[in-house]
Each structure stands twice: as structure tokens, then as C-alpha cells.
Design brief:
114 residues; 50% helix; 3 strands; 20% strand; alpha+beta
Length: 114
């Protein structure tokens, strides 16, 4: 895959890097300031926005939603990558309840593994 450096149309690789970085920042913010701090909630919401943008730009050809059955507690989707990117197989988790809130039912159906 060719790396696209256009800021308005980032490549799948760039978007995955951003999602991973923001997810890490969110976890650190939660540890340092608590889950309800403005930095924590902003980081979480930014991660969700980036994941939705990745799905809308590249699903289902390069990324798709699949429910992660290996987690306990809240139901989560993995944003599964059809090809590894930077040794990653997925672009973090997205809670099912959040996906159902921010995506239309048509998008959910389109973005799930076919």
C-alpha cells in the first residue's frame, strides 16, 4: 500500500497510527486524572471519531468490525485490519453501544465482516 500524506485524505496506515496514539493518550489520561476528566473524555471521544472516519473511509475493503469474544464485561468491536499495519491486526476497540450510537444501522451492516 502506498502511504498517502494528504491531510484531508489520510492513508489507512496514518489513521491507524493516530488511533493507536490517541488510545494510548486516553489510557494515560485516565490513570493520571481519572476517567471523567476533560482530557480523558476528550481523548476517548477523539479516538471514537478517528475510528468512525477510518471505517467510513476504508470499510469493508481494508478494515471491518468484528465483535471481540475474548474480552469480559462490555461488548466490544475490534476494528480488524485485513492486512497488518505496523505489526497490528486491529485499530483498537470500539464499544458496541458506542458504535450503535454513532453509526447508522446501514453503516453497521456494511462495516461488519461480510
Amino acid at each position: 500500500m502506498h502511504e498517502n500524506t494528504d491531510a484531508w485524505n489520510p492513508s489507512v496506515e496514518q489513521m491507524v497510527r493516530e488511533i493507536v496514539a490517541v488510545n494510548h493518550a486516553w489510557k494515560v489520561a485516565c490513570e493520571l486524572f481519572g476517567e471523567d476528566s476533560p482530557l480523558s473524555t476528550s481523548s476517548r471521544d477523539l479516538k471514537t471519531c478517528l475510528q468512525v472516519r477510518l471505517l467510513r473511509s476504508y470499510a469493508p475493503k481494508q478494515v471491518y468490525l468484528i465483535e471481540d469474544k475474548n474480552v469480559e464485561g462490555e461488548r466490544l468491536y475490534s476494528l480488524y485490519l485485513r492486512e497488518h499495519i505496523n505489526n497490528r491486526q486491529y485499530a483498537e476497540h470500539l464499544p458496541v453501544r458506542v458504535a450503535e450510537d454513532v453509526l447508522s444501522s446501514q453503516e453497521l451492516a456494511q462495516f461488519k465482516k461480510q
